[in-house]
Model the fold of this input.
Amino acid sequence: MHRIVAIIIIAIGAILIIVFGSLFLESSGVSSREGNEFRMNLGSEPPTLDWSLATDSVSITVIENMMEGLTRYDQNLQPQPAIAKKIEVSDHGKTYRFHLRKDVRWTDGRPVTAEDFEYSWKRLLDPKTAAEYAYFLYDIVNAYEYNTGQLKNVSQVGVKALDPWTLEVHLKKPIIYFPSITTFMVTFPQRRDLIERYGDRWTDPAHLVTNGPFKLKEWKHEYKVVLEPYGDYFEGSPRLDRVLMFVVNELNTALTLYETGDLDIDVRLPPEAIPFYQHSPEYRRIPVLRGYYYGFNVKKVPFNNVKVRQAFSMAVDREQLPRVLKGGEIPTTSWIPPGMFGHNPEIGLKFDPQRARRLLAEAGYPGGRSFPPVTAVYDTNPINNLIAENLQAQWQQNLNVQVNLENQEWKVFLKRLKTDTPMIFRLGWGADYPDPDNFMGLFTTQSGNNNTHWGNSRYDELIAKAASEPDPKRRQQMYDEAQRILTEQDVSIMPLFVVAQNILIKPYVKGLQLNAMEILSLKDVHLVR
Amino acid sequence: MIRFVLRRFLWAIPVLWVVATLTFILMQVVPGGPFDKDKPLPPEIKANVEAKYHLDRPVWQQYLIYLQSLFEGDLGPSYKYLGRDVNDIIKDSLPVSLQLGGLALGVAVMAGFLLGILAVVKPYSWIDRSGMFMATAGISIPNFVVGALLILFLSHLYKFFPPALWEGWRHAILPALTLGLGPAAFIARLLRSSILETLHQDFVRTARAKGLGEGVILLKHVLKNSVTPAVTFLGPLTATLVTGSFIVEYIFAIPGMGKFFITAVTNRDYPLIMGVTLVYAVIILLANLLVDITYAYLDPRVRVE
Done:
């Protein structure tokens, strides 16, 4: 009897091994290390490697390691020339002339020319491309008109290659941070010949031609991106032999892979693991340009009363949040994050429960009495939950008001923000380029990001003026005044904290420079085992 | 038999149409669209993007456009993974889920049959009780816990298997066990109770009276007459396993199709939602057809005609 059972099991087992073993033969045993190979986790699949269409940080991480633009950031997040060796500004800041290096080549050997930039920018603006980030170039003459179909003649858009090495850009108004915008991937050059030949497939590894330190070797969707150094990169070939960028969604899985040595860096440590690692020499904490705030719908009772908004903001001790979240968050009452020009920690309503209670009383709710039922809404996520519960408790304790909490699935929440904005809602913002305009522009009256229904003409005026102001001192004053309107006077939002990135890096990884833009630049990385 | 199979295939067409239509309606009803983002698009740009994907047309036109391309075998472009068609995404990810699901099915069938048969060799003995304890545990412990425990013990502490990724056969062991152990437990319990019932039937007594050995009786006569419930369960199980599991693919970083059942919905990637739903429907239909054919083979009283 037992013999028969054993025979059956062995037979089924043998069939399974033959059938499925054959499926794995092609791929078995490739996990061993090859030389100077760097392994990291992207966290999710890059939705695209077309830098006119990409909008997310994962795609940006891959693209930035394969491409160079006119300018790039230095360690202080200041734009420096890259492919542009010289930038001439004329016409009171409205004309930029970029003079290009002649030694920059695409991976197929062709030189990178000004026409490649002109083509790329016009492709970004072409309505048929349907690029979500086309608005980054709206400050260029006729860019908006062309992108919205009001203008059909693309030659009237204010960007032109004067010759192969000179690109001229005409702006509608002086934009002081324009060299910051040209660090952003949507302005990287593109090859007309390849895009026209391969269509949507031009980013396939077999077709993609790039000009940066690495080139695309393999892209196994939802699994890994493999990069190899580009030997003729104009600043010298990187020292790594290969970069494996895996797509591991689960934070704990990525941490396990880091522990087992399958990853050399873990850039998204799970929050609950931070206390265990924060004294390790492999641990790094980098504040990033990403703010987290609660917004008020200023049209709904009781938040149509500015005193209620001020009371709510003042009743929150933001120092509690990093203790709850444990991720190294930096509490803040101002909106421009630390590390960015314009940051001023003095701005914003500081924690003052007594004054908060007074303000609430002046608004007609002494001791929180007869305060109408209010609901704070946020998107479903454990961290948002912790924050909401903490704020709910603080408002209850310091103002004696009951705030109900409601969480919704992300897209449902976004839809609701637009169609039926909650009284209080949570949102965040990460920098696209490291200039305060990118943060402060969010809350102008016309901004699509302003969900508060708040508008202030002085604020709008300050933001518009600051964008063109060349004198840093005067520019700082303008942003200070605007931030005071936003967070002290009108309080349409209450900034809470700035996010930090919690990272583990193996000790043998050298040359990695981390920055507040959350972009991992690998060109100087090497491994010393 | 051939007429039966043909008829079932013809029936599949209206079934798939109903599935496609219901999915389409549900997608339209759920709030939020594919291009609602935390960084909202300026209305002009949103108009460009929606025009590109025909989302600016009336819903009935979108439906007709969709049905037409479906008829041509084109599941459409993904809204999330730009420049990739849903056909490509399924072509890349389904084989991975098939491999993993096939292995998990092997684990489920082997372990399930082994536990089920061992349990009835000596009913209510310690073998039976410990086997059924394992089976109960297998049913009640969710697979993300099983996966985490397997990683902890077999990968983290004892380094027998890699904790995740999809590089070779060693990487498939833990996810296959994670996926397969729960169904194995279920099969074991189904088989045990079914065999115990069959053992009390007259033909078993006859077989014993004729002097047949217990092993032959169990494996040749009893087992064949007891597997019907387990086979019924195998139909939907196969479809579930081979189309991938969100949780297992997520925990083990496997590039299979399972994760799209969730992420396509959260991204409101309409064509991808429709694509994976239809693939799932097709596989369910095929698996059920196979089960029906197997019935006829196991029990001649069942007439497939």
Q: What stands out?
A: Chain B has a mean pLDDT of 89. DSSP finds 13 helices and no strands in chain B. Residues 93-267 of chain B form a domain with the MetI-like fold fold (CATH 1.10.3720.10). The first helix of chain B runs from residue 2 to 29.
